[in-house]
Amino acid sequence: MTTAIPRGARSAHVYDRLRDLIVRGRLAPGVRVVEQEVAERMGVGRTPVREALQLLVKEGLLAGSEGGRRQLTVAPLRADDVAELFGLLGDLEAAAVRGLPTLADPARTALAAGAHTANQAFGQVVRKVPLDLEAAFVTRKAFHASFTDPLAGPRLAWLLSLVRPQVDRYEWFYGALLQGALTVAIAEHDAVVRALEAGDAAAAEAAVRQSWKNASARLGGVIDRIGERGSW
After folding, report:
1. What is the pLDDT of residue 68?
2. Domains of the chain with CATH codes
3. What's the pTM?
């Protein structure tokens, strides 16, 4: 027996479900997304589906065809998008750690300790073979959230929430092919932790940007080997 979704929450429910399916590759790049089919599968009317689809288009997770009757497809995964998206996320996280000097010493110490613990959890996951992609994904996000969540203001947090899902798609789709290559990220994260411990905002900014630059290069190499997805 399914629980009825309140009318006012239906659009958000559809949006959350579709975004998760897209990010985790269960709706593959290039696949058509049809309003009526989504409504039938999710047991809701077309209006909340239409609202959810419009938001996903604005966020770049869905793409519309040009001219004629508009058709929506899951946005492709392109090699030239990787550097831009990962670099943008690095810049946004760097903007967050710029607020490090505003923290009192006890709060900064707690922040650094939380980041250290999160990186240890990530390290335990990526050292294991075979790679548990779900656990690697969750612990990597938890590491970055350990310092961006406390430091980002509401507008920066909103921007991060828009960019992160697009980066997540690439990590989910290609991440399994990085098995054995992710242990180097532990040291990259350690550089961030050391800067947080020292209260050195400039060093933290540089370490965060370098971490995402390196992640972009690793993932870009995988795309070069196996190709883009969802584009002609």
Report:
1. 47
2. 7-74 (1.10.10.10), 79-226 (1.20.120.530)
3. 0.89
